[in-house]
Design a protein that fits this description.
Helix content is 24%, strand content 26%. The protein is an alpha+beta fold. The chain starts with a helix and ends with a strand. Bound molecules: 2-acetamido-2-deoxy-beta-D-glucopyranose (6 copies). InterPro entries: DUF5695.
Length: 889
């Protein structure tokens, strides 16, 4: 969230210092064009760093060439720069080198490369003599460094990094230009299989991938510090900042990163006097765009791994791993030892099974016969339903706030929690975080209520009903359904006798006074409230005895009325796509199923006017922020609903532009988010966030698009990575953190629950057991275990929600009570048989309503079991025994 990122910019701009604002790149001397079969590149003549990189014959530049004059100062990094730390053997002190710090014109050399230079002038004096060459690698562009020890003693190199600059500078650009010009990049920190994947923000057109040349593993991926200047705003909401490909990282691991668990084993290399080492990177184009990245990587001889269902996997369930390298596998090792078992079934297929006690990060290291080493990074969770049960328990006990003397009227409620302090966060200088609204304050009650829609619990619902009557429908909301921005505020005179924590800084714009906090003008906040009511509606409708304060129709009407209120003219941002608003679609579906047609019509009309508007816009993904990944979900949902197909395609592409797939749990399906720690985190900084709510919510777009087009398995691969993100956030005590900190000096989950809630909304609405006929690896299940007998296919579900989608038949099957435990289908006849059962820690329902939807329009299935009646546009299935099997034809 946040309205006012510019006040953040103002604070840091004081760092700008005139003396540093000098072009040291030597731009007036011009450029050298480097042309290969696949690229038109330009380097700066004087500094020989990369200035422009376009696929051959194209106009799209992956580099910010247009901003180069703003990035010509010392300390501003470019492709071709090098950073290192070394020490003479026996010494303990690391000496730093960095080609950007004090730039001088490099010495042009003639080596037969496209361009070559000696870096001595631009590096501190020392024994390492470094030559840089831009080379033609089979028509791709290569960047190669030769490092010679020209001294008289052995040297240990403990850090070596290659800065990576791409055009992710959104500063002072219009949305349409960001979409036209910019790119986003993400790493695969996988040693010799390491990559940087770069995609245009539009998600459309060729993508770029950087891979190792020779023995250049990606051991770590380090955020680069640069001075902040107003004209580009490095390290802000409009410019996340850059990173470097780190080949060696021991010198950092020993110092700045001490005590952290790095992705790979930190290493150093020793160079004898007169000895030399070569390292390099290769730039390749995926002409077919992001879907073509794997085949591009494979095509240049690098190993590729493809995990199903991805790399966040539950204990007790076997996952698939397809290793598609060129060289034989010599060995596979696992750290922690025994956490995963990998069994080869031939042809590069492995079954990967977490042990019963495994939990958390696990690294699988594959050693190939050709000497390459690839690391694949897994995260083992508890079984999905158990993780969700733990979450529900933790939210309604540890996070349950009961002090009814609270002058802000917050009790009883599920409040934001500080897991590191093991306490409820009763105060925060960002009012909303302690104020039960905005994503970071509403997140916890939102998750608790949504949990009831999937797996209800009587005790939890009793508490949540008391929250709804005592706080939600009293203090968070006013009686006209308006939703306040915060119930907590900073205004000592308004709460006489209340003590604000004097260690907090209450002077910022975030410490709203009562009037500001109570202003109900932020449309985003309405989604959380509508979803909370809907969670109780769903639970109460399926398990009528669980709700006592109101009947199910009251909850549904509250959620409907909250949406309608959000759409009135006095509410800001209601013409933007809102995070979590897929739930508006669920509410519309339920109004229709309940026969509440006038409400359904009013809601449809309100959504249609938005979709009409978006369909006229080149870039309809507006937000309260200058660039965002929050609008796409709502734009996709309603554009699809109303049949605006070109907007639908544009939206799916846009999501694919900021959601990569790589064999690492942290980045696979991890939607771009990088500023919300400022607005909801405990550790407040601009940083690539791992599995913040963008993952669960943007996955809704890709999973829905996949259901409509089940042959596009790439959508499922990325989408399932995203929808698994919110499971990885739930720790062994059931606490769910808002995101994981990716910077190597931290590598841990944030301490606050913050804005986790919307991520969980994505999980509840998107997670299923998905069967796919994958174009790459064949028939597989994501979230379940599939066995194929030749004539029929059987699947045991293991996803957190236990609902199903059968890709080859284009059929989505949902129940409102209990779970789909397993199913079987016959590809030849399209007959389906599903077995319903109930979880042991969830109340027993007498009936389940079963909905069957054809997502591809090819065939409508109906229940064939005798004696089943229809209800609410579905079938009512008596759950008369522990397990009930239903036939569909
Ligand atoms: C170098 O490339 C740029 C951009 O493609 C082009 O405008 C320029 O004419 C080229 N210069 C030479 C000398 O080929
Ligand atoms: C560094 O390497 C370059 C290129 O091989 C060479 O010309 C130069 O003499 C070397 N400098 C030193 C100090 O060894
Ligand atoms: C680059 O290398 C390829 C093959 O490796 C060769 O066909 C091509 O002519 C080279 N191009 C240049 C510009 O050197
Ligand atoms: C409950 O809140 C009141 C008002 O802030 C405070 O004075 C009191 O100490 C709190 N009680 C507990 C048990 O924390
Ligand atoms: C439903 O909500 C509307 C406001 O949208 C309200 O006027 C009406 O009384 C509510 N109906 C019920 C049954 O609660
Ligand atoms: C499936 O049902 C829908 C709604 O009743 C209908 O419009 C559609 O034509 C049916 N499709 C097929 C393939 O029978």
């Amino acid at each position: 969230m946040s309205q006012i990122f510019c006040s953040f910019l103002v604070v840091v701009s004081v760092l700008t210092s005139a003396v540093l604002c000098r072009d040291t790149l030597g731009l007036p001397d011009g450029y050298i064009n480097l042309t290969t079969a696949n690229f038109d590149a330009e380097i700066v003549r004087n500094a020989q760093v990369l200035a422009s990189l376009k696929p051959a014959g194209g106009t799209f530049d992956f580099l910010p060439f247009d901003y180069l004059s703003l990035r010509a100062k010392n300390g501003q990094y470019h492709g071709g720069d090098i950073t290192f730390r070394y020490r003479t053997s026996g010494s303990t002190t690391w000496i730093t080198g960095d080609s950007s710090r004090s730039r001088k014109k490099v010495t042009a050399l003639s080596t037969g490369a496209l361009a070559a230079s000696g870096l001595t002038p631009t590096l501190p004096t020392g024994p390492l003599n470094i030559t840089r060459e831009w080379i033609n690698v089979s028509g791709d562009l290569g960047l190669q460094f030769t490092i010679v020890n020209s001294g008289y003693s052995a040297i240990e190199i403990g850090s070596l990094g290659f800065p990576a600059e791409f055009n992710s500078i959104f500063t002072n650009r219009q949305a349409i230009d960001i979409s036209r010009l910019c790119s986003l990049s993400d790493p695969y920190i996988g040693m010799h299989a390491g990559q940087i994947r770069v995609a245009p923000t539009s998600g459309d057109g060729p993508a770029l991938v950087v891979t190792p040349l020779g023995d250049t593993p990606m051991e770590a991926y380090r955020n680069l510090e640069e001075t902040y200047y107003d004209d580009t705003a490095y390290g802000s909401q409009v410019f996340e900042g850059f990173y470097e490909w780190q080949v060696l990282s021991k010198a950092w691991a020993e110092n700045e990163w001490a005590g952290k668990e790095p992705w790979n084993e930190p290493s150093s290399r020793t160079l004898q006097p007169g000895g030399s080492l070569k390292f390099g990177l290769r730039f390749s184009v995926a002409k077919g765009g992001v879907r073509d990245l794997d085949s591009t990587v494979r095509g240049i001889g690098m190993p590729v791994a493809h995990g199903v269902p991805g790399y966040i996997i539950p204990r007790g369930t076997a996952a698939d791993l397809f290793l598609q390298g060129w060289s034989a596998v010599n060995s596979i090792t696992v750290k922690p030892t025994g956490a995963l078992a990998s069994d080869s079934t031939g042809n590069g297929h492995y079954t990967v099974t977490p042990s019963r006690s495994a939990w958390g990060r696990v690294r699988l290291t594959v050693a190939y016969a050709d000497g390459k080493v690839q690391t694949i990074h897994y995260y083992v969770t508890k079984p999905g339903t158990e993780a969700i049960a733990n979450l529900g328990q933790s939210l309604t006990t540890d996070q349950w706030f009961t002090n009814t003397s609270d002058p802000f009227g917050r009790a009883p409620s599920v409040m934001t929690y500080d897991y590191e302090a093991r306490s409820i966060l009763q105060q925060d200088s960002r009012a909303w975080v302690a104020g039960l609204s905005d994503e970071a304050g509403a997140g916890s009650f939102l998750a608790a209520c949504m949990k009831q829609a999937a797996h209800p619990n009587a005790g939890q619902i009793m508490k949540l009903e008391s929250f709804i009557d005592g706080v939600l429908w009293k203090t968070i909301q006013t009686f006209d359904f308006a939703v306040r921005k915060s119930t907590f505020f900073y205004e000592p005179d308004a709460v006489p006798g209340y003590t604000y924590d004097s260690s907090m800084d209450w002077s910022s714009w975030t410490s709203w006074n009562k009037a500001s906090a109570y202003t109900p003008d932020r449309a985003y906040d309405y989604v959380h409230v509508a979803a909370a009511y809907w969670g109780l509606y769903r639970a109460g409708r399926a398990y009528p005895s669980l709700i006592k304060s109101h009947t199910w129709d009251w909850y549904l009407n509250q959620s409907y009325s909250t949406i309608i209120r959000a759409m009135q003219d006095d509410i800001a941002y209601n013409q933007d796509g809102l995070m979590g608003e897929t739930v508006f679609g669920e509410i519309l579906t339920d109004l229709t199923r309940e026969g509440l047609s006038s409400q359904a019509q009013a809601l449809t009309a309100a959504m249609k006017s938005r979709a009409d508007q978006w369909n006229t816009e080149a870039v309809p993904f507006g937000s309260e922020m200058a660039w965002d990944s929050t609008g796409q979900e709502g734009v996709y949902y309603w554009s699809k609903y109303f049949g605006y197909t070109s907007t639908v395609t544009k939206t799916v592409n846009s999501v694919l532009g900021y959601m990569p797939t790589v064999p690492h749990w942290g980045w696979n399906g991890n939607a771009r988010r990088y500023w919300d720690n400022i607005y909801g985190g405990k550790l407040r900084r601009i940083e690539r966030q791992i599995h913040h709510y963008g993952s669960g919510l943007n996955a809704l777009v890709l999973l829905s698009a996949f259901r409509s087009n089940p042959s596009d398995s790439y959508l499922l691969r990325v989408g399932y990575g995203g929808t698994s993100g919110p499971v990885s956030s739930i720790n062994q005590d059931g606490f769910a953190a808002a995101s994981f900190h990716s910077w190597p000096d931290t590598l841990k989950w944030d301490g606050f629950s913050g804005d986790y809630g919307p991520n969980f909304v994505g999980l509840v609405l998107g997670t299923r057991t998905y069967v796919v006929q994958d174009s790459d690896v064949g028939l597989v299940a994501y979230g379940g275990v599939l066995t194929s007998s030749g004539t029929s296919v059987s699947v045991q579900t293991a996803d957190p929600v236990r609902r199903i989608f059968i890709g080859p038949l284009g059929v989505l099957i949902t129940v409102d009570a209990g779970i789909i435990n397993n199913f079987r289908y016959v590809p030849g006849t399209c007959a389906i048989s599903i077995t319903l059962s109930q979880l042991s820690d969830v109340p027993v329902a007498a009936n389940a309503v079963l909905w069957v939807e054809s997502t591809t329009g090819t065939r409508n299935h109906s229940v064939a079991t005798a004696g089943i009646t229809t209800t609410r546009l579905g079938w009512q299935i008596p759950l008369s025994s522990a397990s009930v099997t239903v036939q569909l034809t």
